[in-house]
Write the structure tokens for this entry.
Amino acid sequence: MADLRLAGVAKRFGNVPAVQDLDLDIASGEFIVLLGPSGAGKTTTLRLVAGLEQPDAGSVHIAGRDVTRLAPALRDVAFVFQQYSLYPHLSVFDNLAFPLRSPLHPTSETDIKRKVNQIAHMLRIDDKLQNPATQLSGGQMQRVAIGRALVRDPSLYLMDEPLSSLDAKLRNDLRLELKRIQQDLGATMLYVTHDQIEALTMATRIGVLERGRLVQVGTPQQIYEDPVSSYVAARLGSPRINLVPRSVLAGLALPDRVATVGARAEHLRLHRDGHEPAHRRARVTRIERLSDQHLVHVGLDGTDQELITAAPAGQSFEAGDAVGVELLRPLWFDAEGLRVRA
Amino acid sequence: MAEIRVHQLHKAFADFTAVKDSSFTVKDGEFFCLLGPSGCGKTTTLRMIAGLELPTSGQIFLGDEDVSFKRASARDIAFVFQMFALYPHMNVRRNIAFPLVSQGMPGAEVRARVEEAARILRITELLDKPVSGLSSGDRQRVALGRAIVRQPLAFLMDEPLGALDSEFREVMCRELRALHDRLHATTVYVTHDQMEAMAMADTIAIMNRGVIEQLGAPLEVYERPASVFVADFIGAPSMNFLPFDAALASGASAVRIGPAQIDVPALREPISERPLLCGVRPEHVRLEDASPLRAEVLGTEYLGTSRIVTLTTAQGATLRAKVDVTSAAKRGDHVGLAFDASAVSLFDKASGRALRTARDDQPLARRNGARHG
């Protein structure tokens, strides 16, 4: 396994800057997740590392070696795509063995057999090795596709939303499996997703992309608790963080630069009684019970601002209740959405 | 709007049975979800309601009319597909108006209906824009607009949010449900994503291998799953299952698993000696040092507001606990496990059926009702 360094990488498609001035250092054995909505530049970044795209500026280094101008096959990376592409005429075993039979990586048949069996066991498809690839379920096919990347010992694994085409339930299971395998192999991983749960649960560090720029890199906890902007704050957290314009929070003592106040659902406390001056008056509009999560929607009095709050178990409200809203750990943002720190 | 009644619906493709003897009623104005894994028969059921497939046997009523073998175009139903196709050369207004114009509706009425639909969807300011520059959310709204203007008896939706970013899907879920609260349109919605079903549905039908395993309000199927399949499918992460063998008397309120006595809701039926499963949701598992039920921590996952701890018991079962984010549990730790007794479910392992317990006695809160707690 190896480290990866991107230095000042930029890529445009016509007039559209897909990736801008991107610097990223990944240590050997790290699981880095690039997170962002469609069009943020996640997949382009991955393809630049793989060599499937050439950067307009900057350089890519794998294990200390500048690979910027190197052909994809010579970069020693394994790529897993969103849509599994297996060889339909080959068995699961031969699909898994395929990368090892490449003339670039001469391997003895004994070693191939050992390696394929080991990976198949890890992915729990060892009983399917003799099946034709086409006789597998979607989840099994995607595991074979992932397995084909894992049989080699590349310097780096690149994965582009490998779980997004799967059923929600299977996605949950494979997420854990993938993380376990990555840890067991000590693999260096660059993983692209728009799914915040995948990012939170698998990443050593998350890189948040916004219109081609890497706006923050940090541990899941840093990104969740200490975002640099309202854009980053809105990427993690379900329900999404409430972003409230200063104008509807009159009476709250705020620094001059603050334009927007961010409050996560769990950081809004509702009070039924009393008229604390710091509490904003509001009315309950709707109760949403999602499995173990109880969300209380409130509308701030005199505005059309709605907030989603998470009620602690045991607190009960009904639509129409008058409440006071207390902000426990607000995050402040300026007019550009950048964080204002106390 | 109208009620949809499905009676003993059956569909076979050659020797494969896609839907077996399904019966259910979608009440007038209800948001009804067909939920299940791929291949469970949910889409086939929807396509039969739409008239895109004909049943092998059984009946479908739309209001009072038996539409089982009527052509799709003769059923007053609007279908919203996963891949919403808009006409790229038409602006938003003409896209929404299209179904009405092709019916030959007079211009003034078309105009009024399109504007009404746009107002409901809050896209009035987009009406004269080309569809090419729209965000995926606005495209989705336009596709919905095209369904709404027809003022059909019912809406059928086949994973309409499946192609969206997960982040955006959550926003659209709230929006679809809010739209439903304004329109009160009878809606049948197909999804494999339990989160979508939990967030939007009045009633969920959970399907498995062509059979409806349980019909109920979201909280009912969550808190009182009728089978292991339902318990496992609803909720993320899934319910934990601990196997044990026992004979239990009616009224029993504890079971023995390995060295530990586990309190459970009082049983309401006697059970002869057999393999059983004790089901506990991750949020009802606590890490308690004093408990005799021992486990080793395999790993933890940070989720912002909580932490998921994956554990393996001395008996070899894998469990997940949803604990406070401040929990210090880490890989390799040995801990004791305790469960919230009132929230435990029991299942017959062979049939998967839930055993009747005191949990079934209490009345349940309704979905999104005015009351909770």
Summary: The CA atoms of residues 38 and 194 of chain A lie 7 Å apart.
